[in-house]
Design goal:
339 residues; alpha/beta; inorganic pyrophosphatase (n-terminal core); six-stranded parallel beta sheet; six-stranded mixed beta sheet; 12 strands; globular
């Protein structure tokens, strides 16, 4: 449900932090870092962009910083077309930003993929379950929402400012991607935000980019996924020994979930030094997030939602294929028992 006054609370927390931060003095007064989770997807990038734009309207100087690579053709197209300024951090943040107030969006600092980039974590805006103990002045976690972009759309409505076309387009794309065009885990707030943003956005561009996210060069990944697949009960598991975009791995996970005998898919891309994992579930009694956390325990990190989750495994400690498949089989059985 809509948390009335949430954005006002965030502004209050940022003002208090700026008063204590050496990074908020002189020309850089009221400077803020907005940080999406590592390896941002459409929803994370859109939410970060939408929040940064609104903070600019509110008198702050917001910069979007992130770790990891952008692993999606359509996300790169969205960033380029909408002129979204996002700075990749490969090591420590610049010295002049070390003390800047930081707001994490679409992720939790309790997990490995969203550790604060600055020394001053002020807020967390997220929609993932089990955010952990956060220990920061402002927390707005709405687990019933299908998209973090919806929370940011609520902030724009609360502030009373008219959302600009580029921001509306980004937020619309974030909602569409995380809810699979309003077909999974949709809350009334997601529907309201989608309705509010649709004709304010360049919906034709957004829909075209989101839906046309594959190319002919991606076909070998589908072939490898089918050739290497294994099943056990309701589980579909496969390895793809090719370097793929994060988006492609997710699409393949969704694709094989359409098999009527299957209710959980686990796709592992093994073509780089970090193996990316995508898990999907269409069973209300079987959480994708629980499966990936159990399967990757001790060998990687994972998390997400009941219907979709992801993770990473360091290549040097990844078990052999048989052992990895056995981990996912056991994880599915354990997750079913605990539901």
């Amino acid at each position: 449900m809509l948390r009335t006054g949430a954005f006002a609370d965030l502004i209050e927390a940022l003002n208090a932090s700026c008063a204590l931060s050496s990074s908020c003095s002189g020309e850089d007064a009221r400077r803020v870092v907005v940080q999406p989770h590592d390896f941002p997807d459409h929803d994370a990038a859109a939410a970060a962009f939408g929040l940064a734009r609104l903070l600019d309207v509110a008198g702050f100087r917001a910069r979007i910083l992130y770790r990891g690579r952008l692993r999606s053709h359509s996300l790169l197209a969205m960033i380029a077309e909408l002129d979204i300024s996002m700075e990749r951090i490969r090591g420590p943040v610049p010295a002049d930003l070390e003390d800047a107030p930081c707001v994490i969006v679409d992720g939790s600092p309790a997990y490995a993929n969203a550790k604060p980039l600055t020394e001053r974590l002020v807020g967390v805006v997220d929609h993932h379950p089990n955010p952990g103990i956060l220990g920061c002045p402002f927390v707005d976690v709405r687990t019933s929402y299908g998209s973090c972009s919806t929370i940011i759309a609520d902030y724009w409505l609360e502030h009373g400012s008219a959302v600009d076309r580029d921001t509306a387009t980004a937020l619309l794309m974030g909602i569409q991607m995380d809810t699979d065009f309003l077909s999974r885990r949709v809350s009334p707030a997601d529907l309201d935000a989608h309705h509010h943003l649709f004709f304010r956005a360049d919906w034709e561009f957004g829909t075209r980019v989101v839906k046309a996210s594959l190319s002919l060069k991606d076909l070998p990944a589908f072939e490898a996924a089918a050739a290497n697949s294994r099943t056990k009960g309701c589980l579909f598991f496969t390895l793809i020994p090719l370097e793929c975009t994060q988006e492609l791995v997710s699409i393949i996970a969704d694709f094989f979930l359409r098999l009527k005998e299957i209710s959980v898919t686990a796709i592992v891309e093994t073509g780089s030094d970090r193996f990316h994992v995508s898990v999907r579930s269409r069973s209300g009694d079987l959480s994708a997030a629980a499966v990936v956390k159990l399967a990757l325990s001790g060998i990687g990190e994972g998390g997400g939602h009941d219907h979709m989750a992801g993770g990473v495994i360091e290549a040097k400690i990844c078990p052999r294929e048989d052992a990895l498949f056995a981990r996912f089989v056991e994880a599915v059985e354990s997750a079913q028992e605990t539901q």
